[in-house]
Amino acid sequence: MKNKKGQLGTTIIGIGVVLIIGVIIASIMYSQVDNQTSQTTVTDDQFTASNSSCVDITDKCIYSVTSVENGTGSYTVTSGNYSTCKVNSGLRWDDGLLVSDDLVNGQTLNATYTEIDCGYISSGLTRTIVNYLPVLLAVALLIFLAGYVTMKS
Hints:
153 residues, 2 domains, four-stranded antiparallel β-sheet
């Protein structure tokens, strides 16, 4: 006669281990997906303007710049007088600002911009598919568990 209680215990332990590992992997995956698809608006980030070299203003990357102005807001640098640039090579997105307006060279300015992770996914379809990866992992785990339980019983 087979020991059904021992088989049931082994099955439950196996299911528990798979669930714990699956939840850990899903949470890591969700965190990565969230980082690569989210944007944050940064308002009045201070930096010292330079018209000769790119100034690193964020530890992430810049998606778009809304405005650049002096600390009091009395002078706004027009969009043609600043541009995003790469401080750190090898990045897909820019992470710095170059201000070509001689009137503010060396002054402390405030930038308002949209900040993104440097691994940001810009394609709409890819972002949609990537957002469903944790759900697909959960479905795969359920299918695996159903098959495992069926095979063991």
